[in-house]
Amino acid sequence: MAVTAPPLLAVRDSPLGRRLATFMLLGFLALIGAGIAAAWVVAENQRHARWVAHTYQVENVILDTRRLLEQGETARRGFLLVPEEAGFLRSYREASEALSPKLRGLTRLTRDNPVQQRANAVLGAQVADLAVRRQRTFDLLQAGDAAAAREAFRTDSAAGRMRAIRATFDAMLKEERRLLAMRDADLERSEKLFYAILLVAGLLLLGVALTSLATILSYTRDLAHSRDQLSQLNESLEGIVDERTANLTRANDEIQRFAYIVSHDLRSPLVNVMGFTAELEASADTLRALVDRADAAGSDVVTEDDRLAAREDLPEAIGFIRSSTQKMDRLINAILQLSRQGRRVLAPEPIDLAALVAQIGETLAHRLDETESTLEVAGELPVIVTDRFSIDQVLSNLVDNAVKYLRRGVPGRIVVRGYRAGARAVIEVADNGRGIDARDHQRVFDLFRRSGTQDVAGEGIGLATVRALVFRLGGTIDVTSTLGQGTTFRLNLPLTLDLQESKE
Fold first, then answer.
1. Do 370 and 336 fall into the same domain?
2. How does pLDDT run across 103-117, given as a tens digit for each residue?
3. What is the pTM assigned to this prediction?
């Protein structure tokens, strides 16, 4: 007996099938549109973030230039007081040699800003005039005329040249902070636009999912009616009916689960960009599974463009969003972490450096044991009056770096030593690790700059933070190192931190 299948089984040609295909296509288009729009907004966010980073870079160069000028003035004052101490002359020359590259860098970084360029021109003239007067002081001292040198210094101090230079620096920093506020506002607007795009895409997906669910439920009721009709058909069709019913039931269950997941997740608040990207990725996986099942069932509802969008275009767009947002998140967090160091209130107190190093050793005891390394104090360390948190952060970072960058197969040996030099303390942290290339001795203190093979985790902010903290403590830091032999970081700090000077 020939039996004809009920018309309700003609899924592909029914209005329900066409509606379901339309809703699936809308879902694909919504995901693709969200991905493209989100990628564009992320690119805008990155552009704004680069300008924010540029502003912080200009501020860092301004602060570095100011630090070098202050270092030169400190060396000048120290040499006047203690002419026999060659370290002051050496410090002055080092600061003078490093000053010109900083001024050129400041000119290069601010060439897009006429206001800063004018201020930079004023600064250049002020620095040139100060350099001539400083050199005259040193020449008089070296010629043995200390009285004339002190008189020249008093004349310069009375003229307020350093105050004028500081005022120029303050004006440049004020301009950068104005630009930073504008660029932060642009970045915030981009982020709000990104959230708005994601919200619109989410609402579209929710609407498509709910409509699809209603269509599926209606279709399920029709299938129940079809099963009642199939029970009266020829036994030869029972196997086909059972197979088709099972396939449709599985498909229905999968679609219902997909609709539940999407509707449930879209009820949750959009906490952050990366969280919603994960939701898009989960939805994309489900849609790819639907395309795969449609292909396996021989359905021609899904076109080649749909397959390409589901399997290649959409994952690629989501991957770009994820990697871009993660990179942007790390960049901003690093800059904010560094900027916060400059806003914390310092609280000077007597610090027993030997006891502090011992505490750091206890904290890192496990890692020291793992790497067969030792941390020791050589000789007697001076007691200084400074901010405990800051000096702890500085020494912890330096010791931690020494443990990180050991030579393979060589037990690590980290030595902390120090001595007094007039009214200042010199502290050295030396190791026998892999060393730093001579070309990177200064660059390792720059933000996001790392030296050598990048085989250990890190963002390149540790030494930049150390330098910022040391500067706030009224000191300087330098490094000497030989590749394959070891590294020595040298801190020069005041024995007693003067909060008034640290604010200048």
1. no
2. 888 888 888 888 888
3. 0.39
